[in-house]
Amino acid sequence: MGADPLRRVVAQLSRFPGVGQRTATRLAYWLLNQPADVAAEISDALAALHRESTRCGVCFDVTSADPCNRCSDPGRDARIICVVERPQDIPAIERTGGFRGRYHVLGGALAPLDGVGPEQLRVRELLSRLSDAAIEEVLVATDPDVEGDATALYLARMIKPSGVRVTRLAHGVSVGTELEFADQSSVARALENRREL
Amino acid sequence: MGADPLRRVVAQLSRFPGVGQRTATRLAYWLLNQPADVAAEISDALAALHRESTRCGVCFDVTSADPCNRCSDPGRDARIICVVERPQDIPAIERTGGFRGRYHVLGGALAPLDGVGPEQLRVRELLSRLSDAAIEEVLVATDPDVEGDATALYLARMIKPSGVRVTRLAHGVSVGTELEFADQSSVARALENRREL
Fold first, then answer.
1. Most buried residue, B82, B133, B176, B183, by most Cβ within 10 Å?
2. What sign results for the dihedral spanned by CA atoms A179, A155, A172, A189?
3. Tens digit of pLDDT for each residue in B81-100?
4. A72 and chain B in contact, CB less than 8 A
């Protein structure tokens, strides 16, 4: 019964992290009891994900347009760039409504023991964006952990000589929490209390 | 950004029961970081679900073949039919390895207050299967709740006059638990201790 369509769905849904056999089974039967459109619409969205996703050549967020809508939005403040480790950190900042500048996705944090140096991150691309005279501040929103802190200090050392202000999200975000999963009000407070590096 | 492929995946995955915005976001970014094949394979399985699924005309399980592999398997015991409420109850029985007979999916349980009488279930289809002289026992594995118990008693009353033995899963399955989610050993004990109705 390897070709059984229901078992196939269970097997495929089980690939998602945190989705076990039982949850996958529950979801598969749920789908089967919905109109066929529901499975078709979810299927179509998944099929389009890689095909229609690209990276913004400016901020390196995942997007369907290059440059992305945020980078090309004249309503956003071009004087401040918020540096995050991952694309999924951006919604955590956006949800607070407390930031209306631009972003830069580093692609991780410095971790010399794992072989992640500045060359493995988009540091060069960030520095080249600073040649735009409009930019007054870089807000470093890397995670509040050893790697995130080291990355923030490294960026501060690289950027400050150019006269651009470098700030860091305040420790409203509890230590040890990944930014992606931080609660909205902690992130909001962290934005307000950002401090000079 | 309504057409954003990532947001679309988040929105679609959020349709699954128990999958909130955060989980959907986590899964969508996880997918994006996998090879494109992963999303494509999950997508294909979902697209095939309704297209390739049908109901077995004998037991009414969800299947890709009619009659299903279990109903056409000569290695299974044709003398005993296990009656379940839903297709997803079958794997709960199968996992125990304690049953090698055939199944019958009723499609629910009697619930007069909700307008579910014998005509809304596949009772007639079950009774017509009993005209096969090979059948010696009907094991009623409806849920151990009011509706499931009422259904078991109703079936016993209908079937016993024909001389077929009617048994019920023992109360190894804790009362109030839906069979689909019962733990394997409780279901195994319930199979062993099934009692005459």
1. B82
2. negative
3. 999 999 999 988 998 888 99
4. no
ipTM score: 0.77
Q: Spell out the domains of chain A, with CATH numbers in brackets.
A: 5-52 (1.10.8.420), 62-196 (3.40.1360.10)
- In this structure, are residues B160 and B168 in contact, taking their beta carbons and an 8 Å threshold? no
Residue showing tokens 């009011």 = B146
Report the chain A residue with the minimal C-alpha distance to residue B87: A29
B42 inside 8 A of chain A by CB: yes
Q: How far is it, in rounded angstroms, from Cα A55 to Cα A67?
A: 8
Is the Cβ of A5 closer than 8 Å to some Cβ of chain B?
A: yes
Partner residue opposite A40 with nearest CB, options B4, B28, B47 = B47
Chain B residue with Cα closest to A26? B88
Nearest-by-Cβ selection for B12 from A26, A41, A91: A41
**Which tens digits make up the pLDDT trace of B119-160?**
999 999 999 999 988 999 999 999 888 899 899 999 999 999
- Measured CA to CA, the distance from residue A87 to residue B29 in angstroms comes to 8
